[in-house]
């Protein structure tokens, strides 16, 4: 099955902002500034630079092709999933029950409420504005933000691994998978290819990141 239900449909968007761009913005500020001796820039040969650029271009080309295929497969599977919901009304009941139970589990495990999430968003915005905070204020807000994000992540992880959620999701996905395959027998092969494409994309992104870091160090 397309194991995206919890990640894309249940988890609140705040999870993404809190654990992604915001942390990236914060990390450089948290490292104590150290006096470093100036280093002489290393010369990079034109051949080496050209080779690296060629590698990046080739990786970018492969990623674009895979992203296109990913979009194509996802679109086909989503369309079949919609047909499955229309064909089997019980699926929608199970989906709503899964969503409802997951949200309840999040609350049980201490997921931040709406006011707490707004507070995290406010902190994030303040931390992203250069020069608005002095060092003490920034450090205090960073500590509060990290504590909130940690609480959010722990609640999310506990809810996703809760035995009741696992059973509900397994039951829902099994029935949806069977219904989708009855509509189009090629669903299973498409899902397998989708997973392969996702894995390949992740590997290419890692290669590209490593190449960029290597170029910056030269």
What does this 3D model show about the protein?
It is a single chain. The radius of gyration is 23 Å and the shape is flat. Helix 5 (89-108) crosses helix 7. The protein contains 9 helices and no strands. It has 218 residues and is mainly alpha-helical. Mean pLDDT is 80; it is low at 1-44.
Summary of the model, kept short:
The protein is an all-alpha fold. It is built from 9 helices and no strands.
* Total helical elements: 9
How far is the N terminus from the C terminus?
A: 44 Å
Question: Please, what is the average pLDDT?
Answer: 80
Topology, number of strands: 0
Largest sheet: none
The topology string of helices and strands comes to HHHHHHHHH
How large a portion of the residues is in β-strands, by DSSP E?
under 5%
């Amino acid at each position: 099955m397309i194991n995206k239900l919890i990640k894309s449909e249940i988890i609140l968007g705040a999870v993404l902002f809190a654990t992604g761009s915001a942390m990236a913005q914060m990390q450089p500020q948290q490292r104590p500034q150290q006096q470093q001796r100036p280093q002489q820039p290393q010369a990079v040969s034109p051949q080496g630079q050209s080779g690296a650029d060629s590698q990046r271009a080739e990786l970018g080309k492969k990623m674009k092709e895979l992203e296109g295929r990913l979009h194509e497969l996802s679109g086909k599977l989503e369309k079949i999933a919609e047909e499955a919901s229309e064909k089997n009304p019980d699926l929608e009941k199970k989906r709503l029950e899964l969503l409802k139970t997951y949200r309840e589990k999040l609350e049980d495990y201490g997921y931040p409420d709406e006011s707490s999430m707004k507070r995290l968003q406010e902190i994030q915005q303040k931390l992203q504005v250069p020069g608005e905070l002095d060092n003490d204020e920034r450090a205090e807000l960073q500590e509060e933000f990290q504590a909130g994000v940690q609480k959010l992540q722990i609640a999310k992880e506990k809810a996703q691994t809760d035995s009741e959620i696992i059973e509900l999701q397994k039951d829902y996905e099994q029935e949806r998978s069977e219904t989708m395959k009855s509509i189009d027998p090629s669903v299973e092969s498409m899902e397998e290819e989708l997973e392969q494409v996702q894995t390949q994309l992740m590997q290419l992104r890692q290669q590209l990141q490593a190449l960029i870091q290597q170029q910056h160090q030269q």
